[in-house]
Structure formats: structure tokens, C-alpha cells
Design a protein that fits this description.
By secondary structure, the chain is mainly β. It is built from five helices and 21 strands. The strands form four sheets. Strands 1, 4, 14, 15, 16, 17, 18, 19, 20 and 21 form a ten-stranded antiparallel sheet that branches. It has a six-stranded antiparallel sheet with strand order 2-3-5-12-7-10, with no helix packed on it.
Length: 322
């Protein structure tokens, strides 16, 4: 049982930029580099182990061989329930919506997609889309898409560095231009585009819209409060800890290390570490585990049941578990 450093899969969606390569050290030959799937077992973008005895093997293959590395909370599915991404939105993403589990499994053969965003950075004028300003109908939305004025019905929210957003399935949304985001979501790649600003891809073709399916899964009521309130920050000698989001699919915690932190990885759940800034080292109390160095942009998978771990260094980290 080892701590695994992961190599991500990259995505060159047309709205992306170059910050993930320039600022986060992603050695992926794509321009634009819109997303990196940092911890993923999804077949559309699997992560690969970069160290130890599983080096060169996909994380999906490791977990298939060792389902106990997932933990007991995963249940009978024996599949990693989350997908962790970095997103560089140089330009705005499409106006989109995701289905819930029931609909997605019936119609797409995948999980639904509820997600959270942690805003790593945002331009001064950056905004995002989160639900509707007022109740809408299918007829109203169809006319708005055809006439190109959907925006007047959407709730736009000013984005700031450090903001937290939980986006449940069914909420129409869109990450705006000039945002750098860490996204934690269900393990799914089901997205229904409602509107895409009439953009064309590198072949001069407009990207496919999914209006009919969107109408079947969309919440057409008034949007709930968009930005999540920050929870209490707990300060300890050498670090601080804050729960950012806790839902039925995952829990995300922000940890800022100034010296170090000791924590346990129990049998109940795996843990994923995504380093957003700084650098450091993680050690396990199991003497068979070698210390693993990490830096800004690195993602680590810690198998369930590994036991006591020690983080050392100066870094900002997201810690994800189920």
C-alpha cells in the first residue's frame, strides 16, 4: 500500500488557456490546455500513477486490483466516486446543466454530476452563471436561445479568489472567462450544453447543443444562493484547516501548512491531496512507504487504511474524501 502521485489527463477545449502549463507545471502538449483531470478513473481521461511499484499504471487499474484502497464507504460499486480537476477558463464555458444520478444512469450509462468549485484565481471582472433570476419555462428558454438573449434570464455572480460554489445536478451554470478553478465532482462526463455563444471549433463547426435533454433535467425555478459561506477555520501549530464543502458524494477540506500536519487515513475512505501552492513532503507511519515530495500542481492518492500520515512543508492543499 503506497501513496501514489498521479499524472493527469489533459483536455484542449476551445475556451481554455495556458496557465495550467505555465503556472502549475503541467507537461501536456496541448494548446489550449483547458482542463487537467488530476484524479480520475473515468475512461474519458484516466490518471496514471507516476511513482512506486504502480508507476505507469492507470489509477483505475490499481483500484480494480485493490478495491480495498477505496474504503468501506464506497459500498458495493467499488468505483472511485469522485473526479478532481483543474480548470483554466481563459474564455467562458458554455451555459450548461448536468443530470442527476437517476437520469444519467438510465440515459447515459454514467453517474450524474454534482460538483463544487474552489476559485483559485479570478480576474477583476470575472463572473459566473448560477441558475436563473426568475422562474422560466421551456418555451421562454427555447425562444431565448434562438434569439441569442438567454443571458438576461441567468443569474450572474461576481467571482473572487477563494470563493466556494456547490453546483448540484439540475442547476444551469457556467464558469466565466478569467477564472482558474479546482473542481471536485462526481465521476462522470455528462454535460448538456444549453447555449455556447455560437462559437465554432477548430474545424469551423459549432459545438453540439443538447436542448431537449437539458429541459428534462433542469431546475427552472429561482436560483438558490450561489456562493457558499466559509466555515470556521481551525488553527493548529503548523497549519490551519477549513471544511469547504460536504455533500453526499464527497468532502473537501482546505489545509494551509506552515510547518506540518499529522492526520489519519482510516479504512472508511481514500484521501486525495491536490496542492494549489507551495511544496512539501508526505510521509506515512508505515516504514515500508518512502516519503513523497510534492509541489504546486501535484495530486496524490492515499489508499484507505494507510494509517497515520505526516505532511511537512509550506503549502496550500485541498484534501478530498468520501
Amino acid at each position: 500500500m503506497e501513496i501514489m502521485k498521479l499524472l493527469p489527463a489533459g483536455k484542449d477545449y476551445l475556451w481554455g488557456g495556458t496557465r495550467l502549463r505555465e503556472e502549475f507545471g503541467k507537461n501536456i502538449n496541448m494548446t489550449p490546455l483547458a482542463e487537467t483531470w488530476e484524479c480520475s478513473v473515468h475512461p474519458d481521461g484516466p490518471s496514471v500513477v507516476a511513482n512506486g511499484k504502480y508507476s505507469g499504471t492507470t489509477l483505475a487499474e490499481v483500484l480494480k486490483e485493490h478495491p480495498e484502497y477505496l474504503g468501506t464507504k464506497v459500498g458495493d460499486t467499488k468505483e472511485l466516486p469522485v473526479l478532481v480537476k483543474l480548470v483554466d477558463a481563459k474564455n467562458a464555458l458554455s451555459v450548461q446543466v448536468h443530470p442527476n444520478d437517476t437520469y444519467a444512469r438510465e440515459h447515459e450509462g454514467q453517474n450524474g454530476k454534482s460538483e463544487m468549485w474552489y476559485v483559485i484565481d479570478a480576474d477583476e471582472e470575472a463572473t459566473l452563471i448560477y441558475g436563473f433570476k426568475h422562474p422560466v419555462t421551456e418555451k421562454l428558454l427555447r425562444n431565448a436561445v434562438e434569439q441569442g438573449n438567454l443571458d438576461k434570464h441567468l443569474q450572474r455572480v461576481k467571482a473572487h479568489k477563494g470563493d466556494i460554489y456547490y453546483v448540484p445536478a439540475g442547476i444551469v451554470h457556467g464558469i466565466g472567462a478569467g477564472m482558474l478553478v479546482a473542481e471536485i465532482q462526481e465521476s462522470s462526463n455528462v454535460t448538456y450544453r444549453v447555449y455556447d455563444y455560437d462559437r465554432v471549433d477548430k474545424d469551423g463547426k459549432k459545438r453540439e447543443l443538447h436542448f431537449e435533454k437539458s429541459m428534462e433535467v433542469m431546475d427552472m425555478g429561482v436560483a438558490p444562493e450561489a456562493k457558499q459561506k466559509h466555515k470556521l477555520v481551525y488553527y493548529y501549530p503548523g497549519c490551519s484547516r477549513e471544511i469547504l464543502c460536504r455533500c453526499k458524494y464527497f468532502e473537501t477540506e482546505r489545509i494551509v501548512i506552515t510547518k506540518g500536519l499529522s492526520f489519519s487515513v482510516r479504512e472508511e475512505s481514500f484521501q486525495i491531496l491536490l496542492c494549489l501552492d507551495g511544496e512539501g513532503q508526505i510521509e506515512a507511519s508505515d516504514e515500508n512507504n518512502k516519503p513523497v515530495r510534492f509541489q504546486k500542481g501535484d495530486c496524490l492518492y492515499i489508499p484507505a487504511g494507510l494509517g497515520r500520515c505526516y505532511l511537512l512543508g509550506e503549502a496550500e492543499i485541498l484534501k478530498i474524501r468520501c
